[in-house]
Amino acid sequence: xxxxxxxxSYLPPQEEYIEYLNGIWExxxxxxQGPLVTELEAKLKSYLGLEQLHFCxxxxxxxxxxxxxxxxxxxxxxxxFSYCATSHVIVWEKATPVFADILPDTxxxxxxxxxxxxxxxxxAILATHVYGIPCDVDRIEAIARKHGLHVIYDAAHTFGxxxxxxxxxxxxxxxxxxxxxxKVFHTVEGGMITTPNAELAAQIKLYRSFGHTNDDYYDIGIxxxxxxxxxxxxxxxxxxxGEIIADRKFVTELYDAHLNWDKIRQPVIPASVERNYAxxxxxxxxxxxxxxxxxxxxxxxxxxxxxFFPSLNTLSFLRVNKACPVSEDMALRxxxxxxxxxxxxxxxxxxxxxxxxxx
Length: 359
Ligand SMILES: *Cc1c(COP(=O)(O)O)cnc(C)c1O
Known about the structure:
The protein is an alpha/beta fold.
């Protein structure tokens, strides 16, 4: 039996990608806002219902662009329950992360904890819609407005997610997404950044390519562009997203039906959310149970991941000293189970039964 990892990257039919490669070979335009990048940006805008959107090289540099474009160099209130990139970018950009604990149901940042963490040096809130579950966007917006703060959403998990019929990427002053190979929609490596603010969008676009356009130099910048080869993968994958999400839903519902819910928990997802089934996290009663279950799965060459562990406030090199008891507790007990479109039904049932036997 072959190994089962937490995810398996989707690949489109090879001939569809080769078709795009033939065009690249004809044009010799490999990068720098080529026709495929332009086409992908237009199609993404229409798919996601966004006015402004920039395709970039990954889902981390877009967070850096967001912090830079908003002029953030002070305190940023952020979530300890996310992928490490969310906090690393704050430190990388020489700003200061201030962790606010999460809500136990949605695993997203707790608005009360945000309010409690505000100081005169606070400039922004950087929150993650973890597993594609929306943060409390209304309360976060109200807090931000009241205190004059910027809101950045790390929406890396949210491709295709809607809240009350509206793309989750449309919330916040700036939202970013990752198109990494492991995400629901991918361009091998890639990411995007969006903002409803046209001026900010122009600044971000400038930062994306060294701060200049042709021979006109305006500002410093970085190289956050992406290539025609990556855009081609995106153009192949975008029409398949509906199918990919439907297949992920099928696997999700199998787990839902076969896991023993007496002893494990999953996040609570509000009915107003149209999901993308990006992850399948389960919370055990203790870390001890988690380790036992993981060992039993590993023995059958099944490799779930501890997403998200450790709680980011406990990373010593970030030099923060703030307890986030909910996040620390949940991080110890969470395992993300294998979930991808063609994961065979028999394997899902086998995984569920190994878990149930080891609770
Ligand atoms: C994947 C991910 C990132 C990083 O994206 P890359 O494209 O790999 O740079 C950032 N934040 C979160 C929450 C992620 O899951």
